[in-house]
Amino acid sequence: MSVTSLLGPAQIRELAEQAGIRPTKTLGQNFVIDAGTVRKIVRQADVVVGERVVEIGPGLGSLTLGLLEAGADVVAVEIDPVLARLLPTTVARHLPGLERVDDEPTADGAPVVRLRDAEGHDRLTVVLSDALDVHVLPGPPPTALVANLPYNVSVPVLLTFLERFASLERLLVMVQAEVADRVAAPPGSRTYGVPSVKAAWWASARRTATVGRSVFWPVPNVDSALVRLDRREPPAIPVTRGEVFAVVDAAFAQRRKMLRSALAGVAGSSEAAVTALVAAGVDPQARGETVDVEGFARVAAQLAVVARTSDDGTDRDRPGTVAP
């Protein structure tokens, strides 16, 4: 499927003027004005015809039109009421023959507008909501998330959608270059930290391209990059994700501390932390930046063993019962 054209600089500014929109730093609004960049994002996301794709922060519709051009059915989550109202009109101008349907709100209470083709197929569904408040999406489950994410909420949005929507197989997002580096960083690198580990729980991440500032309006003060995440199975351990993430947060709360000290609080003592770390096969003198997500998962599992042993006063669950 194709559309007559994607949005260019003049069209973006005209749409913004007609709607009385002035991009705000508060909402992280930097609109993409380059069709080539839009198509690069869609290509790198491997979007296919008929795929259900969720887009966060569609703004004036540049990327939305690129996804529709590729044949995807788009669920767009927009926090700005003015932009949410404008998007269906913009898309309808580029894809004639679509009928607007004002639907029932989602289970979260978010207003929903659909653009439906003559066969009754929903090509665009607009959900007016803060992405972090979304727990359900209308229609079939999406298999991909593709978005130009606001810089100030990019990591929370990524982690939230990976957690809440198990149907998502891959995510391709444009974010601040520094954020892309942190999300995709391997253990031992300078930028490896909490976002790196938590993203790795859900997916394998890699930075795929750098994006110049000139493709945005207004021009941001930072560079951007594309990062792709492909879902994988989390580590198989007998503790919850929350318990693992608590260990991760503690390990990086004071980056320069050795793990035996950094984890003393969650373990109950430095001695208990050392016991769990050794049983998990992690050097107690190491720092969090050297441990991968599987290592943190093993440590969390062994901390649970230490806690049970301490609670009942026996050694029947001696550290080491969870294989390092």
Automatic annotation (TrEMBL):
Q: What is its main location?
A: cytoplasm
Q: Which SUPFAM superfamilies match?
A: S-adenosyl-L-methionine-dependent methyltransferases
Reaction it catalyzes: adenosine(1518)/adenosine(1519) in 16S rRNA + 4 S-adenosyl-L-methionine = N(6)-dimethyladenosine(1518)/N(6)-dimethyladenosine(1519) in 16S rRNA + 4 S-adenosyl-L-homocysteine + 4 H(+)
The reply on keyword Translocase is no
Question: Subcellular localization, per the record?
Answer: Cytoplasm
Q: Which residues form the Ribosomal RNA adenine methylase transferase N-terminal domain?
A: 37-233
Q: Does the keyword Signal apply?
A: no
- This protein's UniProt keywords: Cytoplasm, Methyltransferase, RNA-binding, rRNA processing, S-adenosyl-L-methionine, Transferase
Q: Give binding positions for S-adenosyl-L-methionine.
A: 30, 32, 57, 78, 130, 148
Which InterPro entries does the record associate with it? KsgA/Erm, rRNA_Ade_diMease-like_C, rRNA_Ade_Mease_Trfase_CS, rRNA_Ade_methylase_Trfase_N, rRNA_adenine_dimethylase, SAM-dependent_MTases_sf
Q: Which family does it belong to?
A: Belongs to the class I-like SAM-binding methyltransferase superfamily. rRNA adenine N(6)-methyltransferase family. RsmA subfamily.
- Output the HAMAP family linked to this UniProt entry: 16SrRNA_methyltr_A
Function description: Specifically dimethylates two adjacent adenosines (A1518 and A1519) in the loop of a conserved hairpin near the 3'-end of 16S rRNA in the 30S particle. May play a critical role in biogenesis of 30S subunits.
Name of protein: Ribosomal RNA small subunit methyltransferase A
Organism, scientific name: Cellulomonas soli
